[in-house]
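Supplementary notes (optional reading)

For those who missed the lab, this is the record we used. Protein: RDD family protein. Length: 131 residues.
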Amino acid sequence: MTSTAQEYPGERLGLPESGPGSIGRLGRRVGALFVDYGAAYLISGFFGWDPLAILGIFALIQIAFLPTLQGSPGHRIFGLTLQRVDGGWVGLWRPVLRTLLLIVVIPAVIWDPDQRGLHDKAAGTVLLRSR
């Protein structure tokens, strides 16, 4: 009898269990989120610490850097990279969709067995370790 349960996140996607190319785990992802949100918070100081400015700047950081550097500044600092599930470039619309769902928060905290949030599933992306 064969088991359909995977032994580690990313196995059914054909990804390695650990190291470069494996699924980016929670600690790195949360660290990256704090870096990006912290940057948005500091930049928003020029606009009077408006909560909407913070979210807007956070969204701009995500949308600008995901297609150009394959990750936000926080992702890159924590050794993560964003790519399509099939390994291609994320393009322009995927970062926009992913960011809008990330700002809503709920899709980002509901995960599948591969530790991909609904925001990544909807965009067809996966956050991987780059180192």
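If you only remember one thing from this example: The mean pLDDT is 94.
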